[in-house]
Amino acid sequence: MVSGEVDITAADNGRIFKTNQEGAPLELSCDQSLLQPDYWLAMKGSPNKENAAKFLAYMSHAKPQAGFAQTISFGPMNNDAYNPVSKEMIGILPGSPELVRMVE
User: Fold this and answer.
1) C-alpha span between 20 and 14 (Å, rounded)
2) Over the stretch 62-86, which tens digit does the pLDDT of each residue have?
3) Where are the alpha helices (DSSP H) in 1-104?
């Protein structure tokens, strides 16, 4: 797409985001019906179960998720994480309230 040989393709939103940061004029169109759940877990019998639980609790808070979303452009699981994110970023994050409203 960057070279102009292709006009449209399927691509991960993180790759489009990174390519745009490098100066390529690409646009992203998300079909929000393709949201995919993710899971974090601590394995049964893990020797650091308590620390794993603390890590998972921390990662579910809005602030670290917002930082992650702004770095790699993957949508957060905590809806409050969209609040500190710039309007520009919200327009490209999968699952963002603005994009979900467009599809509903």
Assistant:
1) 10
2) 999 999 888 888 888 888 999 988 8
3) 13-21, 49-59, 62-72, 87-90, 97-103
5-33 pLDDT tens trace:
878 877 777 777 788 888 888 777 665 44
- Structure tokens given for 29: 């169109």
Quick check: 75 and 94 in contact, CB under 8 A?
yes
Biggest alpha carbon–alpha carbon distance for the chain? 52
CA distances from 52 to 40, 57, 97 (A): 10, 9, 30
* 77-83 own/partner pairs: CB under 8 Å, 24+ apart: 77/38
Q: Per-domain residue ranges for the chain?
A: 13-103
- CA torsion 35-16-14-63 (nearest 10°) is -90
Token pair of 58, please?
A: 């921390």
Are 27 and 96 in contact by the 8 Å Cβ rule? The answer is no
Q: The pTM is what? A: 0.62
